[in-house]
Amino acid sequence: MNETLQEQTEKTYNLIVQANNQMLEIWKNDVLFTWQWWLGVGLTIIPWLLWIKYRKKDSTIRLLSAGFFVILISSWLDCLGVVLGLWYYVYEVFPFIPSYFPWDFSLLPVIIMVFIQIKPTTHPLIKGITFSGISSFLAEPFFIGIGLYRLLNWEHIYSFPIYIVIYLMADYISKRKTWDKV
Fold it and tell me: From start to end of the chain, where are the E strands?
């Protein structure tokens, strides 16, 4: 007997709900309040506090626009990677968010905003390559090393050009003629 599209979708949806419920139980019992969870909380809050204190105040809106773009694109790509089975996270700060919240919503945007602000006359490609190298070949392996992140069908070298493009697009957004110069 052939199932209808609606029946197939409902069956699959119920599997997703069951998996999410199981992930919530794992998170409540084995993740919440561990040192890895507290690290994630710190990595979510501290970069923003430092940025608020040390940013160039008259460039706030311009930098935040670039940072918001980074949040949107990085969280979307990160969720896509998790859904496609390329990697997964073990110690999420929030359950039900498949991407690593501290990385996508704090570390990446804040670091990019700092890179944009510091040495504004340095060529963006040099900054993008530097940022990408640090993110791909130092930060990602570090997060793997402390057990926060697990690669399945991905290599760090694949991230390298993606981070460059994200940086260059954020830099472009921050330097639109509608903004004051850094």
Answer: 87-89, 149-151
